[in-house]
Amino acid sequence: MARALTSLSTELNRQIGLIIHRSGKVEFVILGDHSRIEIPVLSNIRTSGGRLRGLRCVHTSFNQSGPTEEDIMDMVCLRLDMMSILTMKDGFPELLHTAHLIPNRIDDRDWNLLEPAHPAAQQQSCLSLIENIEQQFSKARPIRQVDKGNDRAILVSVSTGSQAEAEDSMIELSELARAARVQVVDRVIQRRRKLHPRFILGRGKLIDIVLMSLRDNANLLIFDQELTPSQVRSVTNHTDLRVIDRTQLILDIFASRALSREGKLQIEMAQLKYLLPMLTTKDDALSRLTGGIGARGPGETKLEIDRRRINDRIARLAKELKAVGKQRYHRRNRRRKHDVPVVSLVGYTNAGKSTLLNTLTNSHIQAEDMLFATLDPTSRRLRFPEDTEVIITDTVGFIRQLPAELLKSFESTLEELFEADLLLHIIDISNHAWKEQVKVVEELLEKLDLDKIPCLRVYNKIDQMNDNLPSQVKNGFCICARDAGTLKELLGMMEHQLFDMSRAQYLP
Ligand SMILES: Nc1nc2c(ncn2[C@@H]2O[C@H](COP(=O)(O)OP(=O)(O)OP(=O)(O)O)[C@@H](O)[C@H]2O)c(=O)[nH]1
Ligand SMILES: [Mg+2]
Question: What is the largest distance, in Å, between two alpha-carbon atoms of the chain?
Fold first, then answer.
């Protein structure tokens, strides 16, 4: 084969390359020009799924030296098993220069070069050499049995803000990843003065990240920023890692958690609307999404990633949502007839809304230390001493940069909030970013036109504070949602707001 390659290459005066499957099958023959070859998209080729790609490249070169910088870059980015350069003399094979990746950097290099040898005088079979390399990788960073089958992600933040902001945001992203059952293996923060509209990362940084993914056996990059379709492509064209952004991660969490029929419809709609602009006719970035996180539909089904089907599906979902919305309207109307006031709990995710509802009404709805534990609105009755009653509703939590698609598709759920006579804004005072969280929630309330409804700020989790309460908080309602004893003052105020005030309205 080497002889055939070199003689053709010499005759055509062009480089010729082969992409060879680990099984020995030649997957691609690449015809380059005099100085380089261009490796085509490889993502459609199935391989065994080790850390390396299961494909190697061999190409002829008119140069006498071994692999060029570009060769190495291709090998790293595509996780090739090996990259071999075949030098030629008088149309015959001369030496085969083979480079391969290594798990631990030596002399600032992540790869190793084998002693050049004539193709017929190789010391070791390719297969045993590759097996050897893969073994070194798994030994360097073994995967625990429990982690098998889970996605392993590297979190990447490319930001123009301050380091501290980026780090805070990263912590939240890690929490989101945890809520999506993704294991975070590494974090990268890159600060830039300006974000490039097409390339989210520089090439050098991208290579660093690919190498990191090799060492950690990561299969997924999660960006803290919302990515444009061309930014996604700029990463996926050079690597074969899957790429999703924060929005897709949030959508994915919602997809796996939504329980009600309406919730499921809303989520699927939001996911499809988000994916649609990313689809171009022969897009590869998305075909890579199939199956894994970012493409999980409600109830662990798979999203259909096909433009025409998506449009059909969106139209059908819209119809179904309308029908469900009507039912909800009737239900609400019935409630209105009995004229029971409604109190809605709002706040940042994980603030303690569900816990408060449970304590107030002796219920057992799910409350846990996890972002977006609650997705479907829940209502419970609460009795006041004077034989009066209110309905308390718990809803989905808010988060910074809540995707617009998501907000839109949750409109009908959020409509519940419009019915509220009083909002309780639950604030997790033990979170050091509580001030920003308050701002996010209040901005969202304003955006949703809910700022006309009376709203009480309620500072929660004071048991975590050892009496170090900030002064502006001291005068507000400070509670521990787990402890009914701390809620008396709040209940009194609620009663006053709901009953005394409304009675006052009818006085002459
Ligand atoms: N220490 C302490 N922990 C609390 C308090 N209130 C809630 N928590 C905890 O905070 C976590 C989140 O509480 P949830 O009630 O699920 O919060 P949520 O606002 O409903 O959050 P999502 O539904 O996920 O948006 C849980 O682990 C609670 O046990 C409190 O007063 N003190
Ligand atoms: Mg909740």
Answer: 108
